[in-house]
Design brief:
- The structure holds two protein chains of two kinds.
- Chain A has three helices and seven strands.
- Chain A is of the alpha+beta class.
- Chain A folds into two domains: about 100 residues, Alpha-D-Glucose-1,6-Bisphosphate, Chain A, domain 4, CATH 3.30.530.20; about 30 residues.
- In chain A, strands 1-7-6-5-4-3-2 form a seven-stranded antiparallel beta sheet.
- The termini of chain A are far apart.
- Chain B has one domain: Arc Repressor Mutant, subunit A (Orthogonal Bundle), CATH 1.10.10.10.
- In chain B, strands 1-3-2 form a three-stranded antiparallel beta sheet.
- In chain B, strand 2 and strand 3 form a beta hairpin.
- The radius of gyration of chain B is 23 Å and the shape is elongated.
- The chains are: A alpha+beta, B mainly alpha.
Chain lengths: ~140, ~120
């Protein structure tokens, strides 16, 4: 077993769930620790985005909003091109723990195989480039 | 458990990349497009025989496909689908939740200290 499909971490935070919730689900909160120029439409199906220090922008789709216990979203697989259709699912779970919060984050879907439809589309795309370049060459030759 | 073929595909990609000659061949196909063994031998400091052997192995692993080229020569083209599977593996390793969660904790601690001082 070498391919991690799922990453899971749990941390204890000294602040109550309401504070943690705000840090996870508001643009102001996200800007303070995660990315910059964050925007978020906090409802299932709503879109959110953030910029990272390296200049890349990540687009998220809000999936679960159960204040103040569950916040989930999908986003592009880290490091893959923007046109790649695969996405991983990130879910934060907040549990009260004394005066603080036990926060669990699970990101899953790394081991998904590109579907047949995806593969067909991709191979078609690669073929498409070769034939489009061929057509460009023909066009330029005809014009010359 | 993930389906076993994800694992197998990633393993083939990384095994291919572990060898410097195969890395050079894949890099040449990626940067300059489909090529015959002879084309590659002209470009790389590897004998034509060695290149042909590596290309057979890469084709068996599905990392390149053979197609008819000019003058009845076989041309090899990079197949990107397995590379994309391997990229996912790297994505999981590159995801830094430990660092992000530390940043979240620091942010909340700072915030709490700020409101105590007010």
């Amino acid at each position: 077993m070498g391919f991690p499909d799922r990453i899971e971490r749990t941390v204890e935070i000294a602040q109550p769930p309401a504070k943690v919730w705000a840090a996870l689900t508001t643009a102001e909160g996200l800007n303070a620790w995660f990315g910059t120029e964050a925007s978020i439409d906090l409802r299932p199906g709503g879109s959110a985005r953030m910029r990272f220090d390296n200049g890349s922008t990540v687009h998220m789709r809000v999936e679960r909003v159960e204040e103040p216990t569950v916040f989930g979203y999908t986003w592009q697989v880290y490091g893959l091109p923007e046109d790649d259709l695969r996405r991983t699912y990130v879910e934060f779970t907040l549990q009260p723990a004394g005066a603080g919060t036990r926060l669990t984050v699970v990101e899953s879907g790394f081991a998904q195989l590109p579907g047949d439809a995806y593969r067909a589309a991709y191979d078609a795309n690669a073929q498409g480039w070769a034939s489009e370049l061929g057509e460009l060459v023909d066009y330029l030759n005809a014009a010359a | 458990m993930p389906p076993p073929d994800v694992e197998a595909i990633a393993e083939q990609v990384f095994a291919a990349l572990a060898d410097p000659s195969r890395r050079a061949i894949l890099a040449a196909l990626a940067s300059e497009g489909p090529a015959t063994a002879t084309d590659l031998a002209a470009r790389l400091p590897i004998t034509r025989q060695a290149i042909a052997k590596h290309l057979v192995l890469l084709a068996e692993a599905g990392l390149v496909t053979a197609e008819p080229g000019e003058r009845r020569r076989v041309r090899y083209r990079l197949r990107s689908a397995p590379m994309r599977v391997a990229q996912q593996f790297l994505a999981a390793l590159a995801r830094d939740w430990d660092g992000q969660l530390d940043a979240l904790k620091e942010h909340l601690d700072r915030q709490a200290r700020g409101s105590e001082e007010q």
